[in-house]
Amino acid sequence: MIEQKPALEVLLCSPRGFCAGVSRAIETVESALRSHGAPVYVRHTIVHNKHVIQGLKTRGAVFVEELSEIPDDRAPVIFSAHGVATAVESEANRRGLFVIDAACPLVKKVHREAEAFYARGYEVVLIGHRGHPEVTGTLGQLPVGAITLIEDISAAKSFSPRTSNTLAYVTQTTLSADDTAEIIRVLQERFPAITGPRKSDICYATTNRQAAVKTVAPLVEAFIVVGSSNSSNSQRLREVAVSEGCAVAMLIEDASQLDWDLLAGIGKLGLTAGASVPEVLVEGLLDALAERFSLAVETVTTASEDGLSFALPRALLTNSSGSSTRQSASGAD
Fold it and tell me: Does 166 reside within a domain?
């Protein structure tokens, strides 16, 4: 007699997975490899996903942390989606490296805002997580000491600006929307004259994926986020699931990391993926779940990202036929 599998209903969040900035960054490396051949050097992991990185390595991408690791030749040097400090750009120019900047346009928007505020005489505050490459790059847009990093509400409450009348803030693009709003509220209460960007710096993809988790988390008993531990947006998705009442909320790279004991007795599961995660990893997880459970999968859609895209970096915009190349933002969704 065949043992009957326990039933498991999976609520699959949409949007999930690749965003426009990630799709653009990956396609930038792939396009450079097609056009110039291997090796193509990439400063920092192009996006925070080991499966993506390994796939690009097998095709000839060489990942480094510093420009000093790159030889003086004409092989392309790609800056990651997270952006870099101006000092890195200057060093690359000094050495005459062939640079292709794959920084997400929404990260570059934050850079321009910080520069504009500084040029207008504002003291600049950056809300973000210390050590994240995006934050390092944004801090590096201005002279040392020109930007103060605020990581949490406690720092917002203790922050002492040089003057409260010329104060401006920008934010990391992959933060928790709710946590960031609370930090901004504290700053605005303490410094009513503080100014910020006309539109939130938290990117559409981060906001959309968090909103989908907020919708699904109250409806399920456990939640799985597919994503890397060094991915800020993936970490925030797990935190949102917990804040919405999911005591069991896991962040895993792929199906091999799933703790099956945590799913014992679970009848309803939420599932999403961070913005650097290829859809094949979500499909692999569903396949693994189907081996142990009788699955019923329902997609819960809270926003559409169809048609959203960013042009590839200028150096790669024209292909061999002379036509412009664009990469879809919708990924596997």
Answer: yes
